[in-house]
C-alpha cells in the first residue's frame, strides 16, 4: 500500500481518539520550543552556500539509504516505543540545557547552549518515527545523528575559516612546488582593510578566499563518513576510522581542486570563472562518490535490518 494511503487510513482511524490529538499537541509544543533553532538553521544555510550544499548532499545520501535499505512503513501516526525514547531524550536534553544555563559559569554558556541542537534532532527523530512508524528507527537514528553533527559543525564555519585557508594555501603551494612551480604564500592588504591570503605561482597571484578553505567539501565528506558509520552500526574504532578517512579525502580533494585551477588558469583566463566552477563541481562530487564507494555506501537493495 502506498505510504500516503497508509497515513490517510491511519488518520481516519485515529482522528476521533483524544490520545492521538494529545500526542500531536505534544509535538506541536515541541515545534514551538525549537522554532528559534529552525530559524537559525534556515538563515545559516541561506547565508552560507557551503552549508546549503552539504545539506543537499546529506538529503541525497538519506534518499539513497531509504531507497536501498528497504525501509518498512508500519503502525503510522503512533507514539511507538522508539518515538517515545527519542522524545524523552529530547526532553531530558532540554532540561539539562536549562539547568546548566543557570549554574554554569559564563565561560561555559556557549557550550551549554549547544545542547539544544541534539535535543532538536532527537525531537525531529521522534516526530518522524511517530508519523512513519517504528520501522524507520534505523534510518532516523542515522540521519538524526548526522544532522546533529551538521548543525554543531556549522557553528564553526567562521572560527575555522582562516586556519583552513592557511592549510589549503600551504599544502597546495607544496604540491605546486613538487610539480616544479615557483610558489610564494603571504598576507597582503592595505591598512584598515581585511588582509588577503595570496598564493603567488610563477608570478601569477591567486587569492585564497574563504570559499577556497575547503570547509564545504571537508564538512560534507565528514558527514557522509559519519552517516555510513551510523547506518552500518560500526564500533567506535571503525567509526573513528571512517571519519578520519572522510576528512583526509575531503582535504586532499580540496588541495587537488586548487592545484588544477592554478595549473589551468594561465591558459583559460578568458573563461576563468567557468573553469573554476567546472573544476570545483567535478572535484566536489568526485570526492563524495569516492567516499560513498570506499566506505561501503549502499548501491543496491539490501536486506531489512
From TrEMBL:
What is this protein's name?
Answer: Exosortase/archaeosortase family protein
Q: What is the first-listed, main subcellular location in coarse terms?
A: membrane
List the membrane topology term(s). Answer: Multi-pass membrane protein
- GO CC terms of this entry: plasma membrane
Pfam families in the record: Exosortase_EpsH (PF09721)
Q: Name one GO molecular function term.
A: peptidase activity
Extract the InterPro entries matched here.
Answer: Exo/Archaeosortase_dom, Exosortase
Q: Name one GO biological process term.
A: proteolysis
Q: Which UniProt keywords apply?
A: Cell membrane, Hydrolase, Membrane, Protease, Transmembrane, Transmembrane helix
So which domain of life are we looking at?
Bacteria
Q: Where in the cell is it found?
A: Cell membrane
User: Mind telling me which residue stretches traverse the membrane in this protein?
Assistant: 20-42, 48-66, 86-104, 110-132, 139-157, 214-231, 243-268, 274-295
Amino acid at each position: 500500500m502506498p505510504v500516503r494511503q497508509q497515513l490517510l487510513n491511519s488518520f481516519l482511524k485515529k482522528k476521533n481518539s483524544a490520545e492521538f490529538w494529545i500526542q500531536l499537541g505534544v509535538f506541536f509544543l515541541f515545534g514551538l520550543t525549537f522554532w528559534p533553532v529552525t530559524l537559525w538553521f534556515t538563515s545559516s544555510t541561506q547565508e552560507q552556500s557551503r552549508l546549503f550544499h552539504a545539506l543537499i548532499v546529506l538529503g541525497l545520501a538519506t534518499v539513497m539509504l531509504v531507497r536501498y535499505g528497504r525501509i518498512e512503513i508500519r503502525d503510522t501516526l503512533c507514539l511507538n516505543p522508539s518515538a517515545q525514547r527519542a522524545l524523552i531524550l529530547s526532553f531530558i536534553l532540554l532540561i539539562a540545557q536549562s539547568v546548566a544555563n543557570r549554574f554554569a559559569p559564563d565561560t561555559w554558556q556557549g557550550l551549554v547552549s549547544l545542547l539544544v541542537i541534539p535535543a532538536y534532532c532527537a525531537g525531529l527523530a521522534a516526530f518522524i518515527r511517530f508519523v512513519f512508524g517504528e520501522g524507520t528507527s534505523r534510518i532516523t537514528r542515522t540521519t538524526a545523528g548526522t544532522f546533529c553533527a551538521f548543525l554543531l559543525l556549522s557553528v564553526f564555519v567562521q572560527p575555522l575559516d582562516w586556519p583552513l585557508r592557511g592549510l589549503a594555501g600551504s599544502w597546495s603551494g607544496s604540491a605546486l612546488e613538487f610539480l616544479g612551480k615557483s610558489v610564494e604564500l603571504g598576507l597582503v592588504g592595505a591598512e584598515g582593510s581585511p588582509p588577503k591570503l595570496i598564493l603567488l605561482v610563477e608570478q601569477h597571484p591567486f587569492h585564497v578566499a574563504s570559499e577556497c578553505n575547503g570547509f564545504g567539501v571537508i564538512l560534507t565528506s565528514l558527514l557522509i563518513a559519519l552517516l555510513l558509520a551510523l547506518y552500518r552500526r560500526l564500533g567506535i574504532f571503525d567509526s573513528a576510522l571512517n571519519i578520519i578517512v572522510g576528512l583526509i579525502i575531503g582535504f586532499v580533494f580540496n588541495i587537488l581542486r586548487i592545484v588544477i585551477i592554478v595549473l589551468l588558469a594561465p591558459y583559460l583566463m578568458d573563461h576563468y570563472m567557468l573553469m573554476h566552477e567546472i573544476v570545483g563541481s567535478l572535484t566536489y562530487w568526485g570526492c563524495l562518490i569516492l567516499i560513498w564507494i570506499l566506505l561501503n555506501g549502499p548501491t543496491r537493495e539490501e536486506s531489512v535490518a
